[in-house]
Specification:
It is built from 2 helices and 4 strands; from the N terminus they run ββαβαβ. It is α+β, with helices and mostly antiparallel strands. It is globular and about 40 Å long.
Length: 87
Amino acid sequence: MRSFEVFGLPLHIHTATGKAEAVEILNGPLSTGVPGANLLSVAFIDVVMETDHAGLDLCEYIREDLRLRFPQLYIRTGQPGSPPSAR
């Protein structure tokens, strides 16, 4: 997908292995410097990263701290059992 385009624009994929790394990406290459604006369009987030709810914490960071309302957040987990409840 290195040369993949959407409506003639290049698609850039960033990966993170945990919440801290994702926050670093959100505040670095995806940041516009304008509150509530970012280059993030879609995020696939695993609920369980460093902790059982780090993914939910990341979602809260994106929506509440960065005030990003438009990116689509897809939350999933591969862990068996009940997913953690939202706080």
